[in-house]
Amino acid sequence: MFKKGLSESPKRIRPGLVSHILLQSGDTSSANLAIAWVIVEPGSAQQPHNHVPEQAYVVVEGQGRIKVGSEIADVKAGDLVYVPSNAEHAVENLGTERLVYVSVAVPALDIEAMYDTGQLKR
Prior knowledge:
The protein is mostly beta strands and 122 residues long. The chain contains one helix and nine strands. The chain has a single domain (11-116), classed as Jelly Rolls.
C-alpha cells in the first residue's frame, strides 16, 4: 500500500497556486498514474501548458474556468474536465473563494520536474 497525505507531500508553490504532489512517476513500481491536489487562490491562474499524459481535473471546491485547446468552460465543485494528450490547458480562479481540484494524469508524469524545469511557472 502507498499512502501520502497533504502535509507530507512535496509542494510546488507559485504566486496564488500550491500543488501538493500526492503521487508521481517514481513513487511506486508502476508508472501508470500521477495525482496532485491543487489550490488556486482567487484571481490566480495556472500557466497554459501541455504534456503527453492524458489528464482529468476533478473540482473539489470553489469555481473557475478551464481552457482545453480552444474550448473554455466554467467549472464548480463536483465537475470533472478531461484533457486529451498534448492538449494545451490551463485553470483560472474567477471566484472569491479558493479553487481546489485534484489532477490525475495517465501515464504518470514527474510533476516536480515539470515545475522545476519551468513548464509550470504560475
